[in-house]
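fyi for ur records
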Amino acid sequence: MFYDDIAAKTQGVEAGDYTESLNLLANTDEFKYNLIVAPGLTRESHSTPLTTMVDNAQSRGDNLAIIDLRDFGNTIAQVTTGATSVDSSYAATYWPWLQTIDPNTGEQVWVPASTMIPGVYAFNYNSS
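which gave:
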């Protein structure tokens, strides 16, 4: 499943697989990174791996976790309510979902904001 249909599976990978990988990334001696994202995982449908991602960022204290709160099609009220559950200096969330061009089909598709935010960060970093 791709794009706005990602609630059940995230590009064919089960949410538990993410949790296992994120647990490995908690090791600060082995893994160095400033930003971590998991496009396709939403707190609404995949709270366990995203909680692990935020907890790791807080424990490590050296990175920022970008998370998506809600599945495609939610309202601003639902997103705002979901945002109250995230209280961390090491996590950020963006909304709404964005439209972009699928490079394989040339069609416009909806993607979670975390798909595009790393590019925004990189552009801002390179501009300064």
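The beta strands are 35-42, 64-68, 91-93, 98-101, 108-111. thats all i got for now
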